[in-house]
Amino acid sequence: MANNKFMGPTPSLIKLPDALDDIRLTGLPQAAYYISDFISQEEEQAILDKIASAPKPRWKQLSHRRLQTWPSDLVNNKLLDAPLPTWLNDPIIPRLKSIRLSHEPDSSDIFSDSPHQKPNHVLINEYLPGIGIMPHKDGAAYYPVVCTVSLGASLCLNIYKSKDDGALDPNPAWRILQEPRSLLVTTSALYTDFLHGIEDITEDVELSKNTIANWELLRSPEEFANGSNVRQTRTSLTYRDVMKVSKLGGKLGLLQKR
């Protein structure tokens, strides 16, 4: 189990799986994994406090939501060479690296084959109730592994596929319920061939073991026994490895360690 340099040892209540295969979402294309308790409540609050205290220019205001990009935005699909701040690195990245893909003796972690062997970019999105994001793909700038840590509240992520004529099927093929403090990992075909989005609604409905792909892996499925989730403000941390890095950002990195 990884140590948390930012906030002390990994809390005793956090028990990571020995391998991602243990927490794989069955019934989905290759491949998705879900850990309901990836960080503690104390770690969650500490990260939220850091997000809230970031300098105002760090926030990019879109039409209905706002976001932060660390260590910087991409320029022509390249990332300026700069480290992530400590509070975004620890404890999350060491924990990601500590989990093997499978129980095979030579198995390694989810980022072992990526260009930098760990995430180098974090997108922080704030979703107020009623606000989502259109179905989309993350694009070719990133290695095809996305690790999303959810903070503050639960909501449903929808996975979409295209019809035979190439048009997007407006009905999600799968729904994944992301609880606060959870980790969702999506890889391979699920990253490259399918779209994901969040509906602009204030309440997720029709929640059950028959409609939610990760129902059996939820921390508290009883919280959704009535089939609904009234949304509150949810913040997501999206960890990815940008494949191309520009060394021109070296000096800029000194300013962004804070």
What brief labels describe this structure?
258 residues, alpha+beta, Jelly Rolls, 5 helices, 16 strands, disordered N terminus
Q: How many beta-strand elements? A: 16
Count of domain modules: 1
Q: What is the general shape? A: globular
- Major sheet: arrangement of strands: 1-11-8-15-6-3-2
CATH topology: Jelly Rolls
At the first level of CATH, the class is Mainly Beta
Q: In sequence order, what are the helices and strands, one letter per element?
A: EHEEEEHHEEEEEEHEEEEEH
Helix content: 10-25%
Low-confidence stretches: 1-10, 249-258
| Main sheet attributes: strand count, strand direction, barrel closure | 7 strands, antiparallel
* The CATH fourth-level homologous superfamily: Alpha-ketoglutarate-dependent dioxygenase AlkB-like
Distance between the termini: 27 Å
Structural class: alpha+beta
The appropriate CATH architecture is: Sandwich
Topology summary:
Elements: E1 32-35, H1 41-52, E2 60-61, E3 66-70, E4 74-75, E5 78-80, H2 86-89, H3 92-98, E6 121-127, E7 133-136, E8 145-151, E9 155-160, E10 174-178, E11 183-187, H4 188-192, E12 195-198, E13 203-204, E14 229-230, E15 234-240, E16 245-246, H5 250-255
Parallel strand pairs: 5-16
Antiparallel strand pairs: 1-11, 2-3, 3-6, 4-5, 6-15, 7-12, 8-11, 8-15, 9-10, 9-12, 13-14
